[in-house]
Amino acid sequence: xxxxxxxxxxxxxxxxxxxxxxxxxxxxxxxxxxxxxxxxxxxxxxxxxxxxxxxxxxxxxxxxxxxxxxxxxxxxxxxxxxxxxxxxxxxxxxxxxxxxxxxxxxxxxxxxxxxxxxxxxxxxxxxxxxxxxxxxxxxxxxxxxxxxxxxxxxxxxxxxxxxxxxxxxxxxxxxxxxxxxxxxxxxxxxxxxxxxxxxxxxxxxxxxxxxxxxxxxxxxxxxxxxxxxxxxxxxxxxxxxxxxxxxxxxxxxxxxxxxxxxxxxxxxxxxxxxxxxxxxxxxxxxxxxxxxxxxxxxxxxxxxxxxxxxxxxxxxxxxxxxxxxxxxx
Length: 329
What we know:
The protein is α+β, with helices and mostly antiparallel strands. The chain has helices spanning 3-10, 74-80, 138-146, 154-174, 180-183, 187-204, 221-236, 239-255, 261-282, 296-309, 314-328, and strands at residues 14-15, 23-27, 34-35, 40-43, 47-53, 56-61, 64-67, 90-91, 93-98, 102-108, 113-117, 121-135, 151-153, 207-218.
């Protein structure tokens, strides 16, 4: 050890920690773990300082200015068998911990979670939101996460926290009785249920989950597309009124185009054809079967009109056509 290192150890008498965003804890970098007796220790609001001797907590300091001597280091003094007049440097590990709330953290489902929905059956749901936490039981946090590390940040512990959140989501969403379409209205209550579900895992690491918010719930794109189609059909409701609306709309569009009267006739004819096909091919509860006394070939022709108009898919047309031809055979 050089003379400068020796001298620097003798004048370490002001100890504090200015934390940066995301910092959780540090081990104070004292040379050879030696701290001067009589040193000034500053613990800021939202911090705590822990002295360790041989791996065990000796003394704890709350926010304030402290002079390190035998009077306010009673446990460490007893462990090291100090005399009251002892004035030499003492060896000890000093750790600073922040108790501030770590806010604005994000969580999300890496993969959709499969749940049994009360209305739609099995569904794959994606969820995203935010949460916050703070150190609560520092002794547990230090033993399970900090250990002998020089520094620990939010980034270091987030993977474990997200894993706990993912597990809570699987049980919280899967065990709920609320249908997916009602979850948005129940989002505040869902957030509280999930916060309660993640709390035990956080507590096991000496942390407290302060806030937990569900900000969005969604379905895979293909499932959402079918849900939108079903919603559209429910909105349409009265097919007769829908056909009249479509016909009137077609007349307005055709009148504004260069076709003039011919366009009006074409638009009206198209609207009537679609309406008749929907009423005849889809309105008799048979999933596209012909109504009593109706020519199956005529029904197939109407269904083909729906296909051309884009009202039904090729798959739906093929299925209904096969069902009608089977009745003829």
